[in-house]
Design brief:
285 residues, alpha/beta, 8-stranded mixed β-sheet, 40% helix
Length: 285
């Protein structure tokens, strides 16, 4: 039995929404199922560049499909692998509980081993950023660099974040045609992602909270780690987090984007793409 969906009907409804959203993926891709100790993990491979591959880790409940605004440009120079996190709704199949940060690191290490590349660039948003940092801090041999955008792991998730999430859920239910700045393609894709989000709500997913990174783990991160926070983050007091990091790991690249919210990756997709590619292009492996 699938440990995320439980009922076949729930899984099938979600997969229908997933497949509809995937129709808008902008570049040719190959679907892979990578075996891990926690179950087969769906990975979408695209691009044929010769650079070190980039592995993309999505935010909570958004699936690998949410990387659609970024993947075409990233795939011009690199192979790109977009991963469906094992313990969330997606095309991966959870066969055994993921109980803690150690399990999450073990699962992601299994995925990277299954992809067959000695080293990769990790890029993650929100919970995906924490997943990348968590692995890199515990076992970074496979990690060439980490780009974490608004990552969890710098304090407990509090009421401010849940209020932000609820507000955005209400906004998601608003007819998309009211947002004049969206193109027809964006309206179509966001509409499908909205269906994914609502379908995910009927799953029985219970995610363990991201464990805050210790000072020892921060110091263990690869030299090529960059953290990108939003000025108005719902997860952190970003200025305080940057001050702490400058004390613990002064050499780490830490950026706070003015005016941005926890939705930074959608508000500033061009910035996210530029930061990932800048690290991936630098030959400092």
């Amino acid at each position: 039995m699938d440990g995320v969906f439980g009922k076949d009907r729930t899984r099938d409804r979600f997969h229908a929404a997933y497949d509809e959203a995937l129709r808008h993926w902008p570049v040719p891709c190959t679907e892979l199922d990578v075996e891990t100790s926690w179950g087969p993990t769906r990975v979408r491979r695209c691009g044929a560049g010769t650079g070190v591959p980039i592995v993309l880790l999505h935010g909570t409940l958004s699936t690998s499909v949410s990387w659609y605004p970024y993947v075409a440009e990233l795939a011009e120079e690199h192979q790109v692998f977009a991963v469906d996190t094992i313990d969330e709704p997606g095309r991966s199949t959870l066969t055994r509980p993921v109980r803690d940060a150690g399990d999450h690191a073990g699962w992601l290490a299994d995925v990277l081993t299954g992809l067959g590349h000695p080293r990769v660039h990790l890029a993650g948003i929100s919970r995906g950023g924490w997943l990348a940092l968590n692995l890199a801090a515990k076992s970074g041999e496979q990690v060439a660099s980490v780009t974490a955008v608004e990552p969890a792991g710098f304090g407990r998730v509090g009421r401010r974040f849940y209020f932000w999430a609820a507000k955005n859920l209400v906004r998601t239910a608003t007819p998309l045609r009211r947002f004049a700045t969206l193109s027809a393609t964006e309206i179509a894709v966001y509409g499908s992602l909205r269906s994914l989000l609502f379908a995910a709500g009927s799953s029985r997913v219970r995610l363990p909270p991201p464990e805050p990174l210790t000072e020892g783990e921060l110091r263990a991160l690869p030299e090529r780690t960059q953290l990108i926070f939003a000025e108005h983050s719902a997860l952190h007091r970003s200025a305080q987090v940057r001050a702490r990091l400058s004390s613990v790991v002064p050499e780490m690249r830490v950026e706070v984007v003015p005016g941005a919210s926890h939705g930074l990756s959608l508000e500033r997709p061009e910035l996210v793409i530029a930061r990932i590619l800048a690290f991936a292009r630098t030959r400092h492996q």
